[in-house]
């Protein structure tokens, strides 16, 4: 019974006599005890009845339940309006009703008075007060600059210390996809954290090389990236811990070299969940370089203090305290509130700069200092070209002698700066000639200075479309050059890298109000402000984002541009971009974007990173809560579906089990080898195996890793392809090593406890879901493959629910004991109550009833209790892994799933499969018994 | 139907990928050291009566599309484009259209060259220098 119901009942029964039994006298009792009910004592009987009658009369006269007056009326005479218009009541009840109404009004007014203490809405909405309120509300979760815009249109979620838009409130899943594949989708990625490293190039490279490994692809030192012409991306590991402890993926951008300076500047962009880890790692590696190698990490904070005043000789150091002071005085001012720009919620004492005395590297935390927008889609550069306009040069001859407080006039005086600006503007102009954003080399960077885009805001929202005009010969030549080589190195320079310029631009932004006033004063309404105000020049960086790079289908889908701006200018660029007819996406869309690109999305698909683990736990509790909200009869019974872990993926257990399986398989094979004549290969394998076994015995159980070694990935992806199927041309990079037991054994020694990222595309219908199981097909399943009919797809026989009988027993017991009401979906289960079953885990848990008794775990109906049995062998098909992202893919036109499988399991399966069906696996949703055929793809 | 409609078939020819590196003959090409990444061919502005043939879509569907353009779409001529492996298919479609029109259609074949860009990314970025791009015709 629900709480409210019992409360009502209690209220109703409050005035009722509980027992109407008359205290029976001794002789009556003795009579009944003897079983002789024949004689009735008249006096006692009459007294007992009299007591009953009196209690009944008492109960009848007392009002029960609601004390409304119209309770006295029969139902058909009651009207809703009676409660506030007493004249609708019969006259005999009016007096009572009036009294009741006054009473209730009094209590109501009391409550209202308490509320009225807060200010009027008008006062609350006054600008200063509103800002104060906004600043208060973002103390815990920081708002992006576009927060208010988003909050009006999006479902907001509080994630990672930010308030982020998850998905729009209007229906636009398909329009957003269409925007990504044909026009342009805009996202605010300002929550990504930027960490700036400042130091000499070789020292930086030496320290950063500890965090990465060449095997996973280009590192920080990649030749194109280090020149500053391209943006690179790496997966960062804990210092020297490759391949075990990854931190997460980051992108990085070097500032192009400046003449006569060995100092380099590097921006590392990371997800907010890994920022702290990354910072500590960076602090460790940058320090370790000169001091003795194994530095105790506890010492480091002492050695690397947050930059205090004495070290303010360097330009960077002088900047930081100034910022802080400003923030302090802002706080001191109090009431005249100022809108917080950047990460203002950080307490001013939090260190944001670290310097190492030995290497001279300065680490600078630029979180929320730079706004980052992402435009996805082939026409995103048209949108940019239409929105942005290269800054107009100001040459006021008269003012040349006077130093201006704005940065642009100062820069205009320098001839070299102007040359650079012209070249950059030219490149930007050429950009318009290019048809699709995918045609540029991936990761190209272009620095630029632009006019305030609010000045060229169209009066109406118009979709930016390519202008189809024939380019001139020279332009064509230039655009070809741009497509081949990318942007020349000197054009990648931008003043956005300069802290002083950034601050100047942020401080001197024209307010919306001032701009509107200037617009008002223009003679012809709607025309452009002719002398562009001096403040309106903003340095920006445009960074090209590569599209889909892996795989053969839909290559370079979802390419686009990132727009980097100084803080404070977020809305000034956002609205003009929106006015160019782009779609806006939230977190949801960025997930879909990476899913269509076939790349793992952070932090969803990084189970080996701490952030990924944390995310999975959160996701599990969220899904579990959602599941428990339904009544047990109305939700999926995962036990019957043979799904052990519908809300999470126990990767560690999976990998360990496969490790055991391969070990057993080898031992068997070893036995065979001994009976037969030993070939050389066998002995080799055996040696390997024995050595491997030694390792296995000596090493403690290590954690699983995700395979990111490019060479191994390429090898394994070659193995996954069917070798003799039609329509598949033999690839040029067909690997030299064929798939056989020796190659597999050697591969497995290298990557024992690994998972590998795979893409599965379904052959028939079906839509894979989160945490679907990836299974290995049996031989007879593959024979079913030829038949088209859907009914022929393999099925899992329904499992028996052993826990149900247990629960029933428990229920009976509870009824017998007549204990207090047990909530129906959570039932205590004791190990001693277990019926003996064939399931191994049940017997094991029955063996130690003590522990389970003590814990007395809550069992959720329809879910396996915690110590899971063997995952791989639970179903009729062997489980290899799980899906972490699955959906109907609009780009492929079929269900597609992304997930991880165990390397050992995958290779074992591939070995046993016939050649023409190699790479076919089964996929089963957690809430279904149907297995669907899927083709596996490992893309490098 | 007095005037014969003329579908012009401009099949754009591209030689099959041959391993001759035209861009930088000085550097020895080793397939192990570099990753080849092909960029998509450049897209050009498209009219209503341009049909780009690919190998993914069903042949009959593409044929039906062309027929629809000629009959219902009111176009007097259509251009069927094919690149690489799809050249055969483009020719095939054109011939089928002609055969089904009972001599009302004329063919005109054009060939031209399309510039394609491949990215060669060095496996070991620290040792090898620039990643190269090469153009093939």
Automatic annotation (TrEMBL), chain A:
Residue ranges of domain Pop1 N-terminal in the record: 45-126, 133-199
Compartments it resides in: Nucleus
Keywords (A to Z) from UniProt: Nucleus, tRNA processing
Polar residues bias (residue ranges): 834-853
InterPro entries: Pop1, POP1_C, Pop1_N, POPLD_dom
GO cellular component, one term: ribonuclease MRP complex
Biased composition (Basic and acidic residues): 787-799
Listed Basic residues bias regions: 109-128, 800-813
Taxonomic superkingdom: Eukaryota
Pfam family, one: POP1_C
Residue ranges of domain POP1 C-terminal in the record: 754-940
UniProt name for this protein: Ribonucleases P/MRP protein subunit POP1
From TrEMBL, chain B:
Pfam families hit by this protein: Rpp20
GO molecular function: nucleic acid binding; ribonuclease P activity
SUPFAM superfamilies the record matches: AlbA-like (SSF82704)
GO cellular component terms attached to this protein's record: nucleolar ribonuclease P complex; ribonuclease MRP complex
Key words of the record: Cytoplasm, Nucleus, rRNA processing, tRNA processing
Primary localisation category: cytoplasm
InterPro entries cross-referenced by the UniProt entry: Alba-like_dom_sf, Pop7/Rpp20
Family under the similarity heading: Belongs to the histone-like Alba family.
Subunit structure: Component of nuclear RNase P and RNase MRP complexes. RNase P consists of a catalytic RNA moiety and 10 different protein chains; POP1, POP4, POP5, POP7, RPP14, RPP21, RPP25, RPP30, RPP38 and RPP40. Within the RNase P complex, POP1, POP7 and RPP25 form the 'finger' subcomplex, POP5, RPP14, RPP40 and homodimeric RPP30 form the 'palm' subcomplex, and RPP21, POP4 and RPP38 form the 'wrist' subcomplex. All subunits of the RNase P complex interact with the catalytic RNA. Several subunits of RNase P are also part of the RNase MRP complex.
Protein purpose: Component of ribonuclease P, a ribonucleoprotein complex that generates mature tRNA molecules by cleaving their 5'-ends. Also a component of the MRP ribonuclease complex, which cleaves pre-rRNA sequences.
Protein name: Ribonuclease P protein subunit p20
Organism: Channa argus (Northern snakehead)
């Amino acid at each position: 019974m629900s709480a409210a119901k019992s409360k009502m009942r209690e209220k109703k029964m409050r005035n009722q006599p509980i027992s109407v039994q008359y205290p029976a006298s001794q002789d009556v009792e003795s009579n009944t005890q003897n079983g002789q009910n024949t004689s009735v004592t008249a006096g006692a009987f009459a007294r007992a009845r009299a007591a009953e009658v009196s209690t009944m009369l008492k109960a009848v006269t007392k009002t029960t339940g609601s004390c409304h007056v119209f309770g006295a009326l029969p139902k058909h005479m009651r009207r809703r309006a009676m409660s506030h218009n007493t004249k609708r009541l019969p006259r005999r009840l009016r007096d009572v009703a009036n009294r009741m109404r006054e009473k209730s009004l009094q209590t109501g007014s009391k409550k209202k008075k308490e509320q009225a203490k807060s200010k009027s809405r008008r006062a609350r909405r006054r600008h200063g007060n509103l800002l104060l309120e906004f600043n208060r509300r973002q103390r815990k979760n920081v708002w992006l600059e576009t927060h208010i815009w988003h909050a009006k249109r999006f479902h907001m979620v509080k994630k990672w210390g930010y308030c982020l838009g998850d998905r729009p409130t209007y229906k636009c899943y398909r329009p957003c996809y269409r925007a990504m594949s044909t026009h342009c989708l805009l996202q605010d990625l300002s929550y990504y954290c930027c960490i700036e490293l400042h130091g000499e190039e070789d020292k930086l490279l030496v320290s950063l090389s500890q965090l990465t490994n060449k095997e996973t692809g280009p590192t920080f030192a990649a030749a194109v990236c280090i020149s500053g012409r391209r943006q690179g991306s790496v997966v960062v590991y804990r210092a020297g811990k490759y391949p075990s402890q990854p931190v997460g993926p980051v992108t990085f951008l070097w500032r192009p070299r400046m003449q006569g300076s060995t100092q380099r500047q590097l921006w590392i962009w990371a997800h907010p969940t890994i920022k702290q880890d990354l910072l500590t790692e960076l602090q460790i590696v940058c320090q370790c370089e000169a001091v003795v190698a194994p530095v105790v990490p506890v010492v480091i904070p002492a050695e690397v203090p947050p930059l205090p005043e004495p070290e303010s000789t360097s330009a960077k150091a002088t900047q930081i305290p100034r910022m802080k002071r400003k923030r302090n005085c802002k706080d001191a001012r109090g009431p005249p509130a100022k809108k917080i720009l950047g990460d203002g919620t950080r307490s001013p004492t939090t260190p944001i700069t670290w310097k190492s005395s030995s290497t001279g590297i300065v680490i600078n935390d630029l979180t929320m200092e730079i706004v980052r927008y992402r435009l996805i889609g082939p026409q995103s550069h048209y949108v940019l070209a239409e929105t942005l306009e290269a800054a107009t040069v100001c040459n006021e001859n008269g003012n040349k002698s006077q130093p201006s407080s704005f940065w642009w006039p100062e820069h205009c005086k320098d001839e070299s700066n102007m040359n650079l600006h012209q070249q950059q503007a030219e490149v930007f102009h050429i950009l318009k000639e290019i048809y699709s954003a995918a045609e540029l080399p991936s990761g190209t960077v272009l620095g630029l200075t632009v006019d305030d885009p609010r000045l060229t805001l169209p009066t109406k929202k118009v979709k930016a479309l390519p202008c189809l005009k024939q380019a001139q010969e020279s332009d064509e030549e230039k655009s070809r050059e741009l497509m081949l080589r990318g942007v020349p190195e000197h054009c990648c320079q931008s003043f956005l890298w300069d802290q002083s310029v950034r601050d100047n631009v942020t401080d001197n932004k024209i307010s919306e109000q001032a701009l509107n006033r200037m617009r008002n004063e223009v003679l012809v309404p709607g025309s452009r402000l002719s002398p562009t105000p001096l403040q309106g020049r903003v340095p920006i960086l445009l960074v090209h984002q590569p599209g889909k790079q892996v795989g053969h289908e839909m290559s370079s889908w979802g390419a686009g541009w990132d727009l980097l701006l100084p803080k404070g200018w977020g809305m000034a660029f956002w609205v003009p971009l929106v006015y160019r007819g782009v779609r806006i996406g939230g977190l949801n869309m960025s997930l879909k974007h990476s899913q269509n690109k076939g790349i793992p999305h952070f932090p969803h698909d990084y189970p080996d990173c701490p952030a990924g683990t944390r995310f999975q736990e959160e996701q599990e509790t969220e899904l579990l809560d959602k599941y428990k909200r339904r009544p047990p009869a109305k939700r999926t019974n995962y036990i019957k579906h043979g799904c052990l872990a519908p809300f999470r993926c126990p990767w560690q257990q999976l990998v360990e089990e496969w490790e055991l399986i391969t070990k057993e398989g080898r031992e068997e094979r070893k036995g065979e080898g001994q009976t037969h004549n030993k070939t050389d290969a066998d002995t080799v394998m055996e040696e390997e195996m024995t050595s491997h076994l030694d390792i296995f015995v000596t090493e403690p159980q290590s954690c699983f890793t995700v395979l990111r070694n490019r060479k191994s990935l390429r090898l394994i992806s070659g193995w996954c392809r069917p070798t003799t199927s039609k329509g598949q041309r033999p690839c040029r990079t067909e690997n030299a090593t064929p798939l056989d037991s020796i190659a597999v054994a050697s591969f497995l020694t290298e990557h024992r406890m690994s998972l590998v990222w795979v893409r599965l595309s379904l052959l028939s219908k079906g839509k894979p879901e989160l945490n679907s199981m990836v299974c290995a097909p049996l031989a007879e399943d593959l024979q079913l493959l030829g038949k088209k009919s859907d009914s022929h797809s393999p099925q899992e026989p329904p499992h028996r629910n052993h826990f149900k009988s247990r629960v029933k027993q428990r229920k009976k017991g509870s009824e017998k004991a007549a204990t207090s009401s047990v909530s129906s979906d959570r039932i205590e289960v004791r190990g001693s109550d277990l019926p003996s079953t064939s399931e191994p885990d049940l017997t094991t848990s029955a063996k130690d009833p003590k522990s389970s008794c003590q814990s007395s775990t809550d069992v959720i109906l329809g879910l396996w209790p915690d110590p899971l049995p063997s995952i791989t062998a639970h179903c009729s098909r062997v489980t290899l892994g799980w899906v972490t992202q699955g959906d109907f893919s609009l780009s492929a036109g079929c269900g597609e799933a992304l997930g991880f499988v165990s390397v050992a399991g995958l290779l074992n399966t591939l070995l046993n499969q016939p050649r023409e069906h190699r790479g076919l696996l089964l996929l089963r949703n957690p809430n279904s018994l149907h297995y669907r055929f899927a083709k596996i793809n490992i893309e490098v | 139907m007095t005037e014969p409609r003329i579908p012009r078939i401009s099949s754009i020819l591209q030689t099959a990928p041959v391993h001759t590196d035209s861009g930088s003959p000085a550097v020895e090409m080793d397939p192990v050291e570099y990753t080849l990444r092909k960029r998509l061919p450049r897209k050009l502005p498209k009219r209503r009566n341009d049909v780009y043939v690919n190998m993914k879509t069903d042949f009959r569907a593409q044929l039906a599309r062309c027929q629809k353009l000629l009959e219902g779409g009111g176009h007097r001529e259509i251009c069927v484009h094919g690149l690489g492996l799809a050249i055969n298919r483009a020719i095939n479609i054109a011939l089928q259209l002609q055969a089904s029109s009972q001599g009302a259609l004329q063919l005109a074949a054009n060939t031209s060259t399309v510039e394609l860009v491949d990215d060669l990314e060095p496996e070991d970025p620290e040792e090898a220098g620039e990643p190269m791009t090469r153009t093939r015709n």
